[in-house]
Amino acid sequence: MIDTYSNLDYNCFEVIDCLKLGGVYDKLQMFKLFRDGQNLYFDLDVVITGDCNKFLKTELSVCKAWWRKAFHTPLNSSIISWYGDKSEIYNLFTADLKRSKRIYYRGIDQYIYHNFDYCYFSDGYCSTKTIKKYDPKYAVYLFNQNHTEMRWRGWCQKFLLNRAVSEQF
User: Fold this and answer.
1) Are 144 and 43 in contact (CB under 8 A)?
2) DSSP symbols for 21-56
3) Which pTM was predicted?
4) What is the number of domains present in the chain?
5) 124-162: buried (b, 16+ CB within 10 Å) or exposed (e) per residue?
6) Which domain holds residue 158?
């Protein structure tokens, strides 16, 4: 999807598959590992349908989670962008891992919300919790831990399959 639809010019693509912190907290490793230049992160349960250059930001940027209930945090980390060294995000959490997991039991969205300055992406993404059908104004669809839904949404198949197969649709 990144090669076919995102229009991003990049020189490195990485998948973090090292399980060190446990569960959703493993995502924090990206801040330790990628400390130079421009960085753009996508959760695996997203569908990329269009130009993602709008998500390249120098300041720490995340999605605004308008679909969440009020008791949760207002941000979502399905897409994260930053420039340079943000390793303090990882270091603060791991300084007392047991305590951090107890306090931020809802995950890294809660952790970032309570500890760091961030900006919201202004547009270009949506959650399938509120937008159920394909609309070309959204470059990224967030499935928010509901990846199985990606398999049965007919419009997704065009974007999930390789280029040769998707041209048949």
Assistant:
1) no
2) S-GGGGGGHHHHH--SSEEEEE-SSEEE-S--GGG-
3) 0.90
4) 1
5) bbbbbeeeeeeeeebbbbbbbeeeeebeebeebebbeee
6) 2-166
Phi-psi region of 125 (alpha: psi -120 to 50; beta: other; left: phi over 0): beta
Running DSSP on this structure, what letter comes out for residue 146? -
The enclosing domain of 147 has a CATH number of: 3.90.550
List the alpha helices (DSSP H) in the chain.
2-5, 29-33, 88-95, 97-103, 108-115, 148-152, 154-160, 163-166
Tokens of 43: 């959760």
Cα–Cα distance, 23 to 15 (Å, whole number) = 15
Task: Report residues of the chain scoring pLDDT below 50.
Answer: 163-169
For 17-37, write each residue's pLDDT tens digit. 888 899 899 999 999 999 999
